Please model this.
Amino acid sequence: MSKATKIIIISCATVMIAGLLIWDVPRNKVQLYLEKDTIEKAALDYLNAEKQKDVKAVYALLAPSSDYKRNHSYEQYLQDIAANSPLSINDYKITRIYRLRDNDNPKNYPAVDKFVQVEVEFVFAHSGPNSIYNYSFTFLKEQGKWYKG
Model:
């Protein structure tokens, strides 16, 4: 391989790597691919805790910087649950994990590194077997760990 060919290959590789580092869209798609299993595990942990009505686990899986957790103690959370009588989950299925993105609001959420959407289909105890409800949850990455936002 000639010296000129090596220079061209190295230049192209450098431009491609710089493009991935600078341009958010492809970088976030690659990061989503690499982190999808970890995000899914965090979502499943949260959803299983909700289904099992394990309120301690649910509260622990909320992002420390989330508006709710910043403004509500565990005791207040228990009061909110008692007052609002949450629905019982019969079944759920994660249908999509998408839109991984950087924190675009570091002023309000300085501890958050990333946001991602997790779309889930639910069947609640009160609904019939064909009654499927679709929700999109935001999960946050803080200090290397994913939490429910």
